[in-house]
């Protein structure tokens, strides 16, 4: 099975993505497929700080619990509260409506992340 | 550890199933979506490959006596084609396993004592018999990975008690499929070969042989989802043909959906909701006292009679989370004072009810429906209440 890996995003080995333009963060299509039906998402609040590589929340599917790791350090300036009532958006549209956070971050942190090609190789 | 493969391991892989280790077997956990598979069983029909379940055949003049000594229910009430749920307990009443016992059609045996190596009952009239005799035969279904242990237990007790019967571990002779859901009766009936019986006539907990795809199969109106349906045992060599009969019409389902379906019903999972090492429980504590007949002399009977007299201190209950979160196996349950009073043995987000539900053991004074408790989810107490099962 092949998975979508949008070119304009950067990725963490642990399957989170960040959009360098908007600061939005989510998990990859591959990750949501591995998890299966997502039933619960726990996220920080606006104004909270996250550290690159640190846990920022939890995503639970029917069969598994997974920690979420911040791709970069920054401040949470937006939270996708729609996921609290409709966690299945993570499955349905992981790069779109299934986004999780918006971060204000230092662009230099992006250098430590994978490009789309590198991430595609990792999950191949 | 090398995992045991069901006969259709590769066929499932070609359908892009995801796999999990279960009881030493490499089994499909999910074909597409646990939620969709769960819904198919509740609303239409799903088919599960449950070939990891064990099968032990017991046949011979003393087969009934052996089963009655090793299972908690009364096997003497079974006629050929009947099925019975039972627990298998050790001397102290703790459950080693739970099982379904099927009484098969009687077997024809030579009456000269040539009984395949079983202990000779020592009767001195063997030479007087003529022609074959009919002896009772049973098939029972240990849980995944328990077949060798149960086979050994049956053989050891047979020998210790000098009983005359054969005990055969036929786990890898039989594939097993569960076809479950409101559409299952018509679906399974239409899959029977021409000239075979109408399986819709089977009542709950009864079974018969029927031909599917040219193979003689044992089909029982049993299952573990709370829905109407059947379990079909077919020869390992015919598994692909028989599976295709069902999988073309019903939704292929993995063990993930089987788990959410049985949790919604409050059904026990061997090894998780009870096991002799980490969660030693008696049938009364596990709320399956209906499967215990104290009028029979089984291993563990005296301990259970004493417990029936004294009452249990803890029992198996349903718990519904009122706060957001998902209860999982091993999470603590606390009382209003914040003291740990139990633990979740099984939990999930119920796909049918769309709420978090759990099973576990609590002190009897906390088991009335509506009792407020908490489940500790990643260090945080989440409000919950005791509810009766099946969950609603």
Question: Would you kindly provide a written description of the structure presented here, covering whatever features stand out?
Answer:
The complex is a heterodimer of chains A (about 120) and B (about 400). Chain A has helices at about 30-35, 80-85, 90, 115-124; strands spanning about 10, 15-20, 25, 40, 50, 55-60, 65-70, 75-80, 100-105. Chain A has about 120 residues and is α+β, with helices and mostly antiparallel strands. By secondary structure, chain B is α+β, with helices and mostly antiparallel strands. Chain B folds into three domains: about 10-50 and about 170-265, Probable tRNA modification gtpase trme, domain 1 (Gyrase A, domain 2), CATH 3.30.1360; about 55-165, Alpha-Beta Plaits, CATH 3.30.70.1400; about 315-385, Aminomethyltransferase beta-barrel domains (Elongation Factor Tu (Ef-tu), domain 3). Helix content of chain B is about 20%, strand content about 35%. Chain B has helices spanning about 10-15, 35-45, 65-70, 145-160, 185-190, 240-245, 255-265, 300-310, and strands spanning about 20, 25-30, 45-50, 55-60, 85-90, 95-110, 130-140, 165-170, 175-180, 205-210, 215-220, 230-235, 250-255, 315-320, 330-335, 340-350, 355-365, 370-375, 380-385. The longest helix of chain B has 15 residues, at about 145-160. The radius of gyration of chain B is 22 Å and the shape is globular. At the A-B interface, strand 6 of A face loops of B.
């Amino acid at each position: 099975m092949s998975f979508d890996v949008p070119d304009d995003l950067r990725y963490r080995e642990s399957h989170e993505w960040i959009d360098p333009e908007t600061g939005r963060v989510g998990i990859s299509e591959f990750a949501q497929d591995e998890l299966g039906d997502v039933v619960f998402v726990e996220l920080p609040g606006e104004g909270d700080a996250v550290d690159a590589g640190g846990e920022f929340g939890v995503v639970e599917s029917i069969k598994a619990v997974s920690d979420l790791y911040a791709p970069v350090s920054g401040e949470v300036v937006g939270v996708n509260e729609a996921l609290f009532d409709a966690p299945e958006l993570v499955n349905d549209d992981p790069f779109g409506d299934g986004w999780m956070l918006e971060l204000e971050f230092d662009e230099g942190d992006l250098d430590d992340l994978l490009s789309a090609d590198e991430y595609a190789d990792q999950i191949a | 550890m090398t995992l045991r493969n069901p006969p259709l391991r590769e066929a499932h892989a070609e359908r892009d199933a995801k796999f999990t280790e279960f009881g030493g077997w490499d089994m499909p956990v999910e074909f597409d979506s646990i939620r969709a598979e769960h819904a198919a069983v509740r609303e239409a029909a799903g088919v599960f490959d449950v070939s990891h379940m064990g099968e032990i055949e017991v046949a011979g003049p003393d087969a009934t006596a052996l089963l009655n000594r090793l299972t908690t229910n009364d096997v003497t009430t079974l006629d050929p084609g009947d099925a019975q749920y039972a627990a298998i307990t050790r001397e102290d009443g703790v459950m080693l396993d739970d099982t379904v016992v099927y009484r098969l059609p009687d077997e024809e045996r030579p009456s000269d004592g040539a009984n395949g190596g079983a202990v000779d009952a020592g009767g001195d009239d063997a030479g007087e018999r003529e022609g074959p005799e009919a002896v009772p035969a049973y098939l029972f279904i240990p849980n995944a990975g328990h077949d060798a242990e149960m086979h050994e237990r049956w053989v050891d007790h047979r020998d210790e008690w000098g009983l005359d019967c054969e005990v055969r571990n036929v786990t890898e002779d039989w594939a097993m499929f569960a076809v479950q859901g409101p559409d299952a009766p018509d679906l399974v009936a239409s899959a029977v070969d021409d000239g075979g019986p109408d399986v819709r006539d089977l009542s709950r907990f009864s079974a018969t042989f029927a031909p599917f795809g040219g193979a003689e199969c044992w089909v029982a109106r049993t299952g573990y989802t709370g829905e109407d349906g059947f379990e079909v045992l077919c020869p390992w060599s015919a598994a692909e043909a028989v599976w295709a009969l069902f999988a073309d019409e019903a939704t292929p389902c993995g063990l993930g959906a089987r788990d959410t379906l049985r949790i919604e019903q409050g059904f026990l999972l061997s090894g998780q909701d009870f096991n002799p090492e980490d969660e030693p429980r008696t049938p009364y504590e596990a709320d399956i006292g209906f499967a215990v007949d104290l009028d029979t002399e089984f291993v563990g009977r005296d301990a259970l009679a004493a417990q029936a007299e004294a009452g249990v201190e803890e029992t198996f209950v349903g718990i519904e989370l009122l706060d957001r979160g998902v209860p999982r196996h091993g999470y603590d349950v606390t009382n209003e004072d914040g003291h740990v009073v139990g633990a979740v043995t099984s939990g999930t987000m119920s796909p049918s009810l769309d709420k978090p539900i759990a099973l576990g053991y609590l002190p009897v004074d906390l088991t009335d429906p509506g009792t407020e408790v908490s489940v500790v989810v990643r260090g945080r107490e989440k409000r919950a209440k005791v509810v009766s099962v099946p969950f609603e």
